[in-house]
Amino acid sequence: MASTAPANTASHRQIALVLEELSQEVEALGASLCGDMDVAMRHMDSLQAIDLIAQKQRSLAKLLHADCLESEVERIGLDILRERMRLLR
Known about the structure:
single chain, elongated, mainly alpha, 5 helices, about 0% strand
């Protein structure tokens, strides 16, 4: 990555907070839909996509909070997102 300087400006922290909130809301929506077994069985792929969205949001929020962006990229648990973020180098 070009820079490992902290991305902890006030605006980045606010964006990270919103991403974290959204991930919680998305997960709650998915959990609610999973509560109906008929819906869960018929829409498993969509429910997994909802979970993936929440995971990506949390990972991006962590990047915005990171003191060392490069190190935080390597901690991303989703391979496809980690690879995309590595392209920032």
